[in-house]
């Protein structure tokens, strides 16, 4: 068996199961799942810990080179380190939730994290998911996947997830939200959702979670064998 490790980019619309599937695939392969959301949270924690005003873009961006932000794979996702300190639990605090959107809106922060993601991917053995991974973050990834499913399938999955929770909605409400989110993601100015020409389209409408994971693992092995 070829032991080469590749970079995998997974894009797709909301509700396609990108993150949950990517985490399982990464764990099966012994790859690093790069949780971009946690990276933005890590920067936000560092800004607040340094007592920098989150609205001071210049000061926030000046802090970035000193962060030494790294990720370490775990069975469930990854640990986040800032200057060697494990901040994985600290980045889930409400104070981070309240400020991460502001930090993530800064162009310098986005550029810094994309560069870090590209550095991590350069050694291979990584999976990254999002809306613009194959087009912007990892344009040279050996395997690009566009994971999608019908609006009805994605809405039903989301509906089943929220049953009995405080976020419970009707199936019709969720379906409308999915359609609205798709339009927003595809038409936004900054990093729109796009299926690049060299992506393998995986439609999971008629596959369950385990079947989708198995299908993607097979794609990975085929890609490695052809490298």
TrEMBL record:
Keywords: ATP-binding, Cytoplasm, Kinase, Nucleotide-binding, Transferase. It is found in: Cytoplasm. Pfam families: Cytidylate_kin. It comes from the Bacteria. ATP binds at residues 12-20. Its EC number is 2.7.4.25. InterPro entries: Cytidylate_kin, Cytidylate_kinase_dom, P-loop_NTPase. One of its GO terms (biological process) is pyrimidine nucleotide metabolic process. GO terms for cellular component: cytosol. GO terms for molecular function: ATP binding; CMP kinase activity; dCMP kinase activity. The keyword Cell membrane does not apply. It catalyses: dCMP + ATP = dCDP + ADP; CMP + ATP = CDP + ADP. Its main location: cytoplasm. The keyword Cytoplasm applies. SUPFAM superfamilies: P-loop containing nucleoside triphosphate hydrolases. Residues 8-221 form the Cytidylate kinase domain. HAMAP family: Cytidyl_kinase_type1. NCBIfam families: cmk. Belongs to the cytidylate kinase family. Type 1 subfamily. This is Cytidylate kinase. It comes from Veillonella dispar DORA_11.
